[in-house]
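Input chain follows. Return structure tokens only.
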Amino acid sequence: QVQLVESGGGLVQAGGSLRLSCAASGSIFSFNAMGWYRQSPEKQRELVARISRGGFTNYADSVKGRFTISRAIAKNTVYLQMNSLKPEDTSIYYCNANGTVVYWGQGTQVTVST
């Protein structure tokens, strides 16, 4: 059983930045990929960014050029640097570990005000 603990969410003005962290209780290198998803009320959970075991990244079109996913393998931590935030980025952000078993964190709220 792996636990994922997100942190770094909060309230920020439009144009601002936040950095989310996801600390795993086990080795993140054991997973095929780590990712960040987000879900707003009445919407489906959507992929924001993903990093594979080999270090390849992909992003949702809506965040390309503004968000960056990275990892610190030795710390078993994945990050999401979010710049130029927009009100439409307001959501609960979830960390995901995708392997033989899929794990989810509890989520962290990001609110972007106008």
